[in-house]
Amino acid sequence: MSWLRLACTLLLGLSLGGPAFAATACPPAPTQASPEQSAAWGRQAQDRGLLYRISRDGRDSFVYATMHIGRPEWAYPGPKLQAALKRVDVLALELDLSDAATLQVLSRPPAHAPDLKLPPALRKRLDAQARLACLPAGALAGQHPLMELSTYTVLAARWDGLDPSFGQELLLSLWAREQGLPIIGLEDAASQQRALIPGDAKLALLSLQKGLDQLEQGRVRPLMKRLAQAWAQGDLATMQDYARWCDCIEDAQDRADFIRLNDERNPTLAAGIEAKHAQGKSVLAAVGALHLSGQASLLKQLRQRGFVVEQLHPGPR
Length: 317
Hints:
Elements lengths: L1 H8 L25 H9 L6 E7 L2 E8 L12 H9 L2 E4 L6 H7 L13 H13 L12 H11 L12 H12 L3 E3 L3 H8 L4 H16 L3 H13 L3 H5 L1 H4 L6 H10 L4 H13 L4 E6 L9 H7 L3 E6 L4
Parallel strand pairs: 2-5, 3-4, 3-5
Antiparallel strand pairs: 1-2, 1-6
């Protein structure tokens, strides 16, 4: 559950920069590649993640399953993804962070959830995670505590060389802007906030405590590392089995949260892809890889809407 929450957090435009705490050992910064190294990575780029062609009405669109953290060498699209990018008219992301209205919603506390008053002990634990993440005091002031936690969680992956700076959505957005390719959002910001943050303060506090427990006990980094490896290898089976092996779904409430964060968002994502495709536009929809899992996966939703789905990468094993 925590990984789903943190993965979506990376689409909410949080500012993660700023000076580090002097008293805290910080994870190494990503390697700054030389022009020669960048050129070599570009020439040797491999297809990673999962790429599908979806066809209807005599026209092709594409679904690309992404990871919200990555390594520098993952910044370069492989041959099949490059070919798809050259064919499409629109890049569709879960949220379009270049949209002013979206950013305005995200800059305010969620309208559906009351202010979460944290007990001093819980606030102290959350602030400790800010120091461990090497964020300056007040860097995330005004954010909902659950969004704070998600940010600290994803930043912990930097110790394993996985950085949000190399998340696929961010890199695809940069590429699209350079090419003049329009970007659209498949969800609206308020709906995504409702999926990420419980409206019930008691449930929000419970989720915060569980997430902090997982982070403090060192259970999150191995989870993210395994997911990243599965994504890079195009291992959908491991990602689909996430709910079993993540050791993060402990009770009925956790299962309900998982469904709300993943399955229940898929019809909206599918409807957005279908609507743009029906307008005569070829779409590359880049969505978090876990949306391809579950009983109501995005690909199942698209098949139900009459799309023929063909996996392009990885090929048959």
